[in-house]
Design brief:
By secondary structure, this protein is an alpha/beta fold. About 45% of the residues lie in helices and about 20% in strands. It has twelve helices and eleven strands. Bound molecules: D-glutamic acid (DGL).
Length: about 280
C-alpha cells in the first residue's frame, strides 16, 4: 500500500466538509479526495436500498481514484449502508456512527445519551444499537432535526429562526438529565454553539466527525499508513488547497459557495462528475 495515497471521503453533499475539516486538522500530512453527491442529496429522507445503492456507487468512484482508506462522512449512509459499502470495495471503510457512539458512552458515564440526526438515521436506530452494544444499560433518546440542514447551508446558524427551531426540537430533551448529546448529522456542527446554548452548556456535545477523525488517526498509526511529508510541506498545507481534490455530482458553484460558508475557503480543485450509470466514469 502506498502511504501517500489520499484518504477518500464521501457525503451526500456539502455537510461532510465538517468531517473533512476535522480530518485535515488532525492529519495535516494527508491528502484527501472528497465526493459530495449533490445531485442526489438529501439522503436523510430516503430508503435503505436507495442509500445503499448511492453509497456503493460513491465508494466505487472513490476507490477508482486510488485511495488508501474510505471515510463515509455521511451519518445517514453510515447508519444504513456501511456493511453494503464495505462488501463492495476492497479498501478499509470507516463510518461515523461507531466512533460517535464510543465517544458519547465514554463521556456520558451511564447517563442518558441523546442523538439528533436525520429522519433515516433516527429510523435506523443505528446510534442506539452502537451505544447499547458498548453499554447495554445506557438509555438513548433519538430525535430527527431535519430543518437544521437547510439552516446550516443557508448560513443562518446564528439567526432567530434557527434558535426558535432548535428550541422546538430540543425542548423535551432539556428535561432529560443528559450525559451527552450526539450531533449525528454532518451539518449540525455548524450549529454547535446554538445547540449548546439551547440544550444547556453543561451537556457535552459529541461531534461524530471529530470522533471519527481521531479514530482514523489511530487506525493509520496502528497500520503504519500515515503519509510522509516534510515539515516545510506541512507548514504550507491549508484547507482546500490544491493537494485535496473535490468532486460533486451536480451544482459545483453552489457547493463552492456553501463550502466557503462552512470552511471559510472554497476548494481549489473542484470537478463535477457522474458516478452512476456508466461503465466508464465521465467528467465534464
Ligand atoms: N449528510 C447527511 C447526514 O449526515 C445530512 C444531509 C442529508 O440528508 O443528506 O446524515
Amino acid at each position: 500500500m502506498n502511504l501517500n495515497l489520499p484518504i477518500g471521503i464521501f457525503d451526500s453533499g456539502v455537510g461532510g466538509l465538517t468531517v473533512y475539516r476535522a480530518l485535515h486538522e488532525r492529519l495535516p500530512a494527508e491528502r484527501f479526495v472528497y465526493l459530495g453527491d449533490t445531485a442526489r442529496v438529501p439522503y436523510g429522507t430516503k430508503s435503505l436500498s436507495t442509500v445503499e445503492r448511492y453509497g456503493i456507487e460513491n465508494a466505487k468512484f472513490l476507490e477508482a481514484q486510488g485511495i488508501k482508506l474510505l471515510v463515509v462522512a455521511c451519518n445517514t449512509a453510515s447508519a444504513l449502508a456501511l456493511p453494503a459499502i464495505g462488501n463492495a470495495v476492497d479498501i478499509q471503510v470507516v463510518g461515523v456512527i461507531e466512533p460517535g457512539a464510543r465517544a458519547a458512552v465514554e463521556i456520558a458515564r451511564g447517563k442518558t445519551i441523546a442523538v439528533i440526526a436525520t429522519e433515516a438515521t433516527v429510523q435506523s436506530g443505528a446510534y442506539a444499537k452502537a451505544i447499547n452494544q458498548i453499554d447495554p444499560h445506557t438509555k438513548v433518546i433519538e430525535r430527527a432535526c431535519p430543518l437544521f440542514v437547510p439552516l446550516a447551508e443557508e448560513g443562518w446558524a446564528n439567526s432567530a429562526v434557527a434558535r426558535s427551531v432548535a428550541e422546538q426540537y430540543l425542548q423535551n430533551l432539556r428535561e432529560a438529565d443528559l450525559g451527552a448529546l450526539v450531533l449525528g448529522c454532518t451539518h449540525y456542527p455548524i450549529l454547535r454553539d446554538l445547540i449548546g446554548e439551547v440544550i444547556g452548556t453543561d451537556v457535552p456535545l459529541i461531534d461524530s466527525g471529530e470522533a471519527t477523525a481521531e479514530e482514523v488517526r489511530s487506525l493509520l498509526e496502528s497500520k503504519q499508513l500515515r503519509a510522509s511529508q516534510t515539515t516545510r510541506e506541512l507548514e504550507e498545507r491549508r484547507l482546500c488547497d490544491d493537494l485535496d481534490h473535490f468532486y460533486v455530482t451536480d451544482a459545483a458553484e453552489r457547493f463552492a459557495k456553501v463550502a466557503e460558508r462552512f470552511l471559510g475557503t472554497a476548494p481549489s480543485v473542484l470537478e463535477a462528475v457522474e458516478v452512476w450509470g456508466h461503465d466508464e466514469l465521465r467528467t465534464y
